[in-house]
Specification:
TIM Barrel; 7-stranded parallel sheet; 12% strand; binds zinc ion
């Protein structure tokens, strides 16, 4: 029997999730790549996981995140957050996580009021970032919190970081959304919040400077910004979109955005991201229910990101910088 290439890939990539015995009829799950996972400090009162006896909240968060990836067949994920936590997650599963450093911050804190950097700064030290990338611990920058910090992506403060990303071929993860609305933010978060900075159009002058920058526009579901995203997709083949948080916005909005990207000829530019802890399964269900072909859904869930991240189809390993 000749295996369909997709099935062959899923058999290889799904090996870690394969049933323990041949009697178990559960088929291997088709692989998924999630480009939007968050690392952070664990919380004793988290709604997403329970802290078990003998476990720290940090350990519980990591355990639950890995379990969520396992349950849903995620073979590779980009994990962003405060530098120390992104690295904590990556180091626990280096074949599965690409590490990403989140910034800019406000008063040293991210939108969840977690400290971003050990020195209390709002920005990573450039030489440190270069060294972390050279060592393979950082493969991306983001989630970029320009909207929360009120700092434009096309301004002078961002310029050296985007030049470094272009030079080192780091993936850039942009919070390209006008939200979340005030009721969706952590109380005390973000006195400088400016949703207008989330318009993907702000990336145009950056891409004119760095046309090869590999950029993922997070949250590209909002009607007022979908056309800005399409305009960037039309111009730059190294720009991708995802439509998280799919468990928190009306599904018709997400499906309309997906349909628009496909209609514009960009079915191969949509990638999957779950965003919140514990959101992988619910987000997968939104994609599975979308008015798309099975091949288009598989492209969103795996193949588009595998191509963009240059994953070896045999081993699910991203190419290291
Ligand atoms: Zn996010």
């Amino acid at each position: 029997m000749r295996l369909h290439p997709l099935l062959a890939a899923s058999l290889v990539l799904g090996a870690a999730h394969a049933p323990a015995s041949a009697q178990d009829a559960t088929p291997p799950r088709a692989p998924v790549i999630d480009v939007h996972v968050h690392a952070g400090a664990g919380r004793a009162d988290s709604p997403f996981y329970e802290v078990r006896e003998g476990e720290t909240p940090d350990g519980a968060f990591l355990r639950s995140a890995l379990a969520d990836l396992d349950t849903n067949g995620v073979v590779l994920a980009i994990v962003g957050g405060p530098a120390v936590h992104a690295e904590r997650f990556r180091a626990a599963a280096p074949d599965r996580f690409v590490g990403a450093v989140a910034f800019p911050c406000t008063g040293g804190l991210d939108p969840n009021l977690q400290q971003c950097f050990e020195d209390g700064s709002d920005w990573p030290d450039l030489a440190w970032l270069r060294a972390e990338a050279d060592a393979g611990r950082v493969g991306a920058i983001g989630e970029l919190y320009n909207v929360y910090a009120g700092v434009p992506v096309d301004g002078p403060e961002m310029a050296p970081y985007l030049a470094l990303a272009a030079e080192l071929d780091l993936v850039v993860l942009a919070h390209a959304d006008a939200g979340p609305p005030p009721e969706g933010r952590t109380p005390g978060c973000c006195p400088n919040f400016d949703g207008a900075l989330g318009d993907p159009a702000h990336w145009r002058s950056v891409l004119e400077r760095h046309p090869d920058l590999r950029l993922i526009l997070y949250h590209a579901f909002r009607p007022e910004y979908v056309e800005s995203a399409v305009a960037l997709l039309d111009l730059y083949p190294n720009v991708m979109v995802e439509t998280s948080p799919m468990t928190r916005v009306p599904t018709p909005l997400v499906h309309a955005a997906l349909a628009r990207f496909v209609e514009a000829g960009h079915a191969d530019r949509i990638v999957f991201g779950s965003d919140y802890p514990g959101a992988v399964g619910g987000s997968l269900a939104v994609i599975q229910a979308a008015p798309l072909t099975d091949a288009q859904k598989r492209a969103i869930l795996y193949h588009n990101a595998a191509r963009f991240l240059r994953v070896d189809p045999e081993g699910a390993e991203p190419e290291r910088p």
